[in-house]
Specification:
The relative contact order is 0.19. Helix 2 crosses helix 8. The two termini are about 20 Å apart. It is globular, with a radius of gyration of 14 Å. It contains 9 helices and 2 strands, in the order ααββααααααα. The chain has a two-stranded antiparallel ribbon with strand order 1-2. About 60% of the residues lie in helices and about 5% in strands. The chain has one domain. It is mainly α.
Length: about 160
């Protein structure tokens, strides 16, 4: 069993997006759907595809730092501020599994790097398309929607 969707939104996703200065209901819903699709809201945190709630691969994590965050020192500093001080230096990819806010910030940065406009908060198919591009290129939109229905339920639970 993973984390309750309302708790994940309220205690991890929303505060992280607010900290990054990019909160919106659509961003919150998209990250919640990604966590539902990737890991069942934390029911399984690691597999061959990646680490943590969002199953981010080590190579994608490294590429995000090298190609995106390295070009914006202020943003990189904010993201790095979410990571554990010593553990990040020893095992940066482990932070994706054990640090929910850091993992959420990295997931959001991957979405931002995609440069796609966010769909409306009630557009599950639009969110599924972004999830597929960013997190699971071989995934099917219906898998995202099924995970949403199984793990989150109704959109009113997000707001």
């Amino acid at each position: 069993m993973g984390i309750a969707a309302c708790d994940l939104s309220q205690h991890v996703i929303r505060p992280t997006l607010l900290y990054l200065g990019c909160h919106s209901p659509a961003a919150e819903a998209l990250l919640l759907g990604a966590a539902a699709s990737q890991s069942g809201l934390g029911a399984a945190l690691d597999d061959k595809h990646g680490h943590g709630l969002y199953r981010i691969a080590e190579l994608r994590h490294q590429q995000l730092w090298d190609q995106h965050l390295a070009r914006d020192p202020d943003l990189a500093s904010r993201i790095r501020g979410l990571a554990s001080q010593h553990a990040f230096l020893a095992a940066p990819h482990l932070e994706l599994t054990v640090n929910l806010r850091y993992a959420t910030a990295i997931a959001w940065m991957l979405i931002e790097a995609d440069n796609s406009p966010l769909p409306a908060v009630d557009d599950l198919l639009g969110m599924a398309r972004i999830w597929r591009r960013v997190f699971r290129p071989h995934g099917r939109p219906r898998d995202f929607i099924a995970a949403w229905q199984r793990c989150v339920g109704s959109l009113s639970r997000v707001a």
